[in-house]
Design brief:
The complex is a heterodimer. By secondary structure, chain A is an all-alpha fold. Chain A is built from seven helices and no strands. Chain A has a single domain, classed as Cytochrome c-like domain (Cytochrome Bc1 Complex, Chain D, domain 2, Orthogonal Bundle), CATH 1.10.760. The longest helix of chain B has 15 residues. Chain B is globular, with a radius of gyration of 19 Å. The relative contact order of chain B is 0.18.
């Protein structure tokens, strides 16, 4: 019974349909955390490695153990913390299309206005603010 | 001088087509491992061939209130159906709309055999469609020069290029912009429907192009079009014109 309940909660997890928090863009960065506090890098690492949850490794490669082959559609995330600032990484996850309108990188923190968005995903971002901050916190540690 | 202009115009036309300029047209077959290729190319190990045998049985079996078989009117498929799959989707004269091969088979079933249509994705419909398409194996895709198809190909292309779903991806974003690269462990092919219905190892069975398109839409977190939806037929009409010249492979094998 307990287990069944947990499964239900997990399936409904994207439902964290909290309203989007506002953020401000400075240049090509969002300097302040969406949540107002730094994320949890260790949780971010786990989330990034889970391609069902975060989708990251479907397109990117990253120095994390993951049982499946990693994608080659997008830049390798190794060393991203050395190439980009925390704020630059944050905007690229939140809304890469703001920087490059033709990108295939989904805007992770935006309500999709694309046609035919499936009902299960309608009205919610790809990831919530906490999840994004956790991933940002992990990515800034990738210095090489 | 005229030749020079002609060449320039041809180059511009190619660029303007916005299609596969940079890379040669390649079937998904070319991206597969040698093992999977070998499985497709050897009829004894191609699991799709079991469905072809089943389709042959259906071709010859009388059906419906009319109690006639496909072969009763069309004779030997190797002759009457040779090249048919290279020309579909085609305009169906009674509705003046495009119809795919499976739709044509089902229409024949209803109007000629006076039988119930096979359900979408049923083993019978897949087997019979694969059997008919198999009669064109090795023949180049040659969509009909029928102007009535033009608006459908155009809307299929618009759909191919439209961003859909929560992730805001389009077919073109991956299959034109990133063909040959990997999504997770899977190589992204150029999306030429050369081998349908085909046996997908992931499915452990034969499946239609529409099943594949619907799977892709689910991955984009978009609401898939229903089986038989006009949008999917239009998309197929565009994809087949885009694949012109590539040989039919049915029954294909894919990972």
């Amino acid at each position: 019974m307990r287990l069944a309940l947990i499964v239900v909660v997990l399936l409904a997890a994207p439902a964290a349909a909290e309203p989007l928090r506002s953020y401000s863009i400075a240049g090509d960065a969002i300097v302040q955390p969406l949540t107002g506090h730094p994320g949890d890098a260790s949780r971010g690492r786990t989330l990034l490695a889970n391609r069902q949850a975060s989708l990251c490794l479907l397109c990117h490669q990253a120095p994390v153990p993951e049982p499946h082959a990693q994608g080659t559609l997008a830049p390798d995330l190794s060393g991203v913390g050395g190439r980009l600032s925390e704020g630059q990484i944050r905007l690229r996850i939140v809304d890469m299309a703001h920087i490059s309108p033709s990108t295939i990188m989904p805007s992770y923190y935006r309500i999709s206005d694309h046609p035919r968005t499936a009902e299960a995903w309608r009205g919610r971002p790809v990831l919530g603010a906490e999840d994004i901050e956790d991933i940002v916190a992990f990515l800034v540690t990738l210095k090489e | 001088m005229a030749l020079k202009h002609g060449l320039a115009a041809a180059v511009l036309a190619l660029l303007g087509a916005g299609g596969l300029v940079a890379q040669e047209k390649r079937s998904g077959l070319d991206y597969m491992t040698p093992e999977t290729r070998a499985m497709q190319e050897d009829d004894m190990s191609n699991p799709g061939m079991l469905f072809i045998a089943e389709g042959e049985g259906l071709w010859q079996a009388p059906a419906g209130a009319a109690n006639i078989a496909c072969s009763g009117c069309h004779g030997t498929a190797a002759q009457s159906m040779r090249g048919t799959a290279t020309r579909y989707p085609a305009i169906e004269e009674s509705t003046r709309r495009p119809i795919d091969l499976a739709g044509r088979i089902n229409l024949c079933r209803q109007t000629q055999q006076k039988a119930q249509a096979f359900p979408a994705e049923s083993p019978e419909l897949l087997a019979l469609t694969a059997y008919v398409a198999h009669q064109s194996r090795g023949m180049p895709i040659a969509p009909p020069a029928d102007d009535r198809l033009t608006p459908y190909r155009k809307s299929g292309r618009d759909l191919f290029e439209r961003r859909l779903g929560q992730l805001g991806l389009s077919c073109a974003a991956c299959h034109e912009g990133h063909a040959g690269q990997r999504l997770g462990g899977s190589i992204i092919p150029q999306a030429h429907p050369t081998a349908y219905p085909l046996y997908r190892l992931e499915w452990q069975t034969l499946g239609s192009l529409q099943r594949r398109l619907r799977n892709c839409m689910t991955g984009m977190r978009a609401e898939p079009f229903a089986h038989g939806a006009p949008e999917l037929i239009a998309l197929e009409a565009y994809l087949m014109s885009r694949a012109t010249g590539l040989p039919i492979e049915t029954p294909g094998v894919r990972p």
